[in-house]
């Protein structure tokens, strides 16, 4: 069998590792966890040459730093597999996400976005608010596809608008709306990672994240209305949009609510942790949804090849998350942990300054190319110190908001990269356009974090 054929069947190997990870949730066995760790090392070795250049560099830096911390501490060689096994559960969640996107495509719910965005609105100020609210409403399930679909539609709708104005509008409305949806979506990996680190209850976190999203929508819609108040789409330049399918829209919202209820039930009644609750809910829920709307065959026809293709190409996530797991675990057993703790120790008793420090760290590291998940992992390494200052819910709000606020201004982030290609823009032009928003959303997060700290103290 050729190397190419083997690479097309990596999903079988990865699925085996994921099944062992699920088994470990119910059977906490050190030998089993060690086996998972050994297989995780094999996954890393396979994925490194297949990953993108930026992830190779980042993975190399994380592994090099982890190796340094390993030799500086008292860990032994037999501990190495355990250090790599920690983030397998995050990879399992990422591998399951295509099933949710597949039921959305099978049910043709992606056409909702076209209908909702395609109203006969001429003023860009009004269209901006409508575009952002639509993105926030639907991106929780559609994820990246909501951004690409809306960008294509807006490009067509605004084809006779000045290019600079059009590009500014699209980069602001779609990327900012996308990030505001991520704040509360149970499918968002940054939120899941934050809860994974803090051990907070998603049901307690959800109202706070929705509050941040609502404030963000209200303020940014006002900003957009003001910025584009004098711009209009020339009359007759676009076709009349099809009416919104109210039945399908109701189905979509009902499905979203039911999925959230399922996750909450598994977390609070069955007592499973949030990350695992989301992960094991995705496929059964998506399948039953497809059956109820009579799209089962289409769901499987779309979902199976999509899942295999996506799982075979987890290389970037494998390199990042497993290298990050090694770094985080070795840092925890290294005497150098104190050097990272010192700035936070120096700020002890000043939670507001700690909040600003965390926001600044996420923003600066993102601008130089470090993925927010990697930064999240660094703070995860000092989580014991942070939880001494903040209750779990408060810390989750802080980490999640500061991380997600950077998404529209991450020069090497996937959504910015997709947008830069679609609009033929330099990624740093997009970054500069959205940097004030990222700072502002982070500050809103700090404000709500302070409020929650007062409530839970």
TrEMBL record:
The keyword Secreted does not apply. The chain crosses the membrane at residues 9-26, 32-48, 55-74, 80-100, 175-199, 205-228, 249-268, 274-293, 314-333, 353-386, 393-415, 435-456. This is Uncharacterized protein. It comes from the Bacteria. Keywords: Membrane, Transmembrane, Transmembrane helix.
């Amino acid at each position: 069998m050729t190397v190419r054929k083997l690479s097309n069947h990596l999903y079988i190997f990865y699925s085996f590792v994921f099944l062992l990870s699920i088994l470990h949730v119910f059977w906490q066995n050190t030998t089993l966890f060690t086996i998972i760790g050994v297989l995780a090392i094999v996954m890393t070795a396979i994925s490194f040459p297949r990953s993108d250049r930026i992830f190779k560099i980042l993975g190399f830096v994380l592994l090099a730093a982890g190796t340094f911390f390993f030799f500086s501490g008292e860990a032994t060689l037999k501990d190495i597999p355990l250090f790599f096994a920690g983030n397998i559960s995050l990879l399992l969640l990422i591998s399951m996400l295509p099933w949710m996107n597949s039921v959305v495509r099978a049910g043709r719910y992606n056409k909702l976005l076209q209908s909702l965005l395609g109203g006969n609105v001429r003023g860009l100020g009004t269209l901006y608010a409508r575009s952002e609210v639509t993105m926030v409403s639907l991106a929780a399930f559609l994820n990246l596809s909501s951004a690409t679909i809306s960008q294509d539609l807006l490009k067509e709708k605004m084809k006779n608008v000045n290019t600079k104005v059009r590009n500014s509008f699209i980069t602001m409305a779609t990327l900012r709306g996308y990030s505001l949806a991520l704040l509360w979506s149970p499918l968002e990996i940054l939120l899941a990672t934050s809860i994974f680190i803090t051990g907070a209850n998603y049901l307690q976190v959800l109202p706070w994240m929705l509050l941040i999203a609502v404030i963000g929508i209200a303020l940014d819609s006002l900003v957009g209305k003001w910025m584009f108040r004098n711009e209009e789409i020339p009359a007759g330049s676009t076709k009349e949009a099809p009416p919104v399918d109210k039945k399908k829209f109701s189905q979509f919202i009902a499905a979203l609510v039911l999925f959230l209820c399922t996750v909450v039930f598994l977390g609070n009644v069955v007592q499973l942790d949030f990350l695992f609750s989301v992960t094991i809910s995705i496929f059964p829920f998506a399948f039953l949804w497809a059956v109820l709307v009579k799209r089962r065959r289409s769901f499987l026809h779309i979902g199976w090849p999509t899942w295999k293709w996506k799982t075979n190409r987890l290389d970037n996530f494998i390199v990042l998350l497993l290298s990050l797991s090694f770094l985080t675990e070795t840092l925890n057993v290294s005497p150098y942990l104190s050097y990272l703790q010192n700035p936070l120790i120096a700020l002890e008793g000043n939670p507001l300054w700690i909040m600003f420090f965390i926001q600044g760290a996420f923003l600066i590291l993102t601008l130089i190319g470090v993925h927010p998940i990697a930064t999240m992992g660094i703070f995860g390494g000092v989580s014991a110190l942070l939880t001494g200052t903040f209750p779990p819910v408060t810390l989750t709000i802080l980490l999640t908001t500061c991380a997600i606020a950077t998404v529209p201004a991450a020069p090497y982030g996937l959504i910015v990269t997709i947008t830069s290609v679609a609009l033929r823009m330099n990624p740093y032009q997009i970054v500069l356009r959205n940097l004030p928003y990222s700072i502002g959303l982070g500050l809103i997060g700090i404000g709500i974090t302070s409020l929650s700290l007062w409530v839970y103290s």
